[in-house]
Amino acid sequence: MKAVINIVGKDKVGIVHKSTGLLVKYGINIVDINQTIIDGYFNMIMIVDISKMSGSFDDLIRDYGELEREIEVKIKVMHEDIFNAMHII
Fold first, then answer.
1. Of 28, 16, 18, nearest to 55 (Cα)?
2. Domain span at residue 38?
């Protein structure tokens, strides 16, 4: 099982550190990652393996919601089933 995590906001120190720190907390591995900074705006998308995560997916979403408010960025966490369903024509 995988999830897609997208983080967007004004670039600042600590975004990568804090957002990947939550993955460590839950024992989640990054499968693929892409990060860009364009004109001062940060954008990162991660595909992560949640098949062996500790804790619940709802807890992960809650923690990313708290982080979103703390570092003032937009964070979207989607289970791969939801992500795939959104892109079926």
1. 28
2. 2-86
